[in-house]
């Protein structure tokens, strides 16, 4: 059975039969292959259209939900969109067969992009695991009209769904068949090598008797007629009688399954009492020699004891991992990052997965939720971890300095410029990662240059006449509503799509209160290391108070509160009463700050509106009267959404 969230079906036999009937419509095997590829492609294209994706970010999420793989957009223009697909459903486990095979994935992307772009698109696979590549790559371009949609001749929705069942089942069966064939071929090759070695040994006069005598188990070789043709010294001693070559197992009164082993080619194992003691008997085929290798192992032997001890150790390790729960799967390179809630464990596992790619990441979340910390986690978990991680706080850069901060400038680029020029932050992060915190603060005129860098990894320094190319991954973060800013014309839509290939949303602390005890412990330990004082504890009732608080300032507010408590409380244990007192103070300040902030905001907005009206919307005159620069006035007009 296969269930991908869209379809649910169970009968593989009917599916295979139906597929054969469809393919038999073709006259030749070559035509049959073409029909098969068209079925996969066109049916998937119809499915892609029905996914109801509205942008490339939702497409990326939908592809991961379907289990088809993980997409990264590597190029986007008016002519085409280039996708890379990692962990491809069809070909991720395939060896090089010299041709691309992912018609189904190509169809899904073609249909989905057709919906997004509102025009008919086609996809061609240019790289594939089946070509020896480590990922698949698809060029999606405007449809030429040569490909025929499968639905053109369909009888409606029922036929389309039936073909969807047929296609995905067939793909799954084909993939399983390829895996089984590959594994079978490897196993056959290994067994052949072993059998050849044993055959050569059997044909040799001395049969390397010294080797088989050195084996501690009782060892013998039985031929196809039931005669014991070889036996080791240990087995002879166990029989307590002189052994003659070519003795029948019947005369030795052995219970053997050699005929069954030779007939099936599969080994046999059972337990038997011999001379009043339990033994394990293992008989395995020597295929080309048409013989059976027989091993007899006492249950009380050192070998069995060692095996049982090893099993016990493994069982203890499994039990330990079960008790540890899902947290085991959230282990990160950074020991400071600890998560406890199911939501954060899932998020960390997702971060570990996407960190392995070079896709741009957009982190969303309230101020203080840990966006910077998790951006560093992405870098540490990525193949770029040994290269620079450059942090850029976009809120601290004056508007006129964004270009030089990001891209740098050449000597003499402008009056007052450093004579040696300046290296931009993007170039400083060569080979590594740059983190743009509060990306919404970047002026819109600089956003176009950043977009080009994300698309081509190229830029020109201020004052330069040559283009530089830098291999730097970009992670961006914001606490603002970028979608609303796009609607207001304050943020480029194409830059948003380029950044938002992978979307990571960090929940506020009030929604993951299970994290608070671990965070508090980590903060207390950090304070102890910084001050050299003994590590303080928080009593259980106090921890509960912390977990019940709403934390409008998130983790940053928690850190500040605990730091204050460590300085105010002299006792080694921070009491509930001390915590309640600080939380009450914090709530009062938050209420006052919220009211004051709103009052200041409204008063300033009213003042700007009145001055603009008096100056008849002359921005320069209004800025002069307000005692601010013209650019600051523009920023405040945007901030307060002042319209005229």
TrEMBL record:
Pfam hit, one? Sigma54_activat
Keyword Transcription regulation tagged? yes
Q: Which InterPro entries match?
A: AAA+_ATPase (IPR003593), AAA_lid_NorR (IPR058031), Homeodomain-like_sf (IPR009057), HTH_Fis (IPR002197), NO_sig/Golgi_transp_ligand-bd (IPR024096), P-loop_NTPase (IPR027417), Sigma_54_int (IPR002078), Sigma_54_int_dom_ATP-bd_1 (IPR025662)
Sorted UniProt keywords:
ATP-binding, DNA-binding, Nucleotide-binding, Transcription, Transcription regulation
Q: Which domain of life is it from?
A: Bacteria
Q: Which residues form the Sigma-54 factor interaction domain?
A: 337-567
**Name of the protein:** AAA family ATPase
Recorded source organism is: Acetobacterium malicum
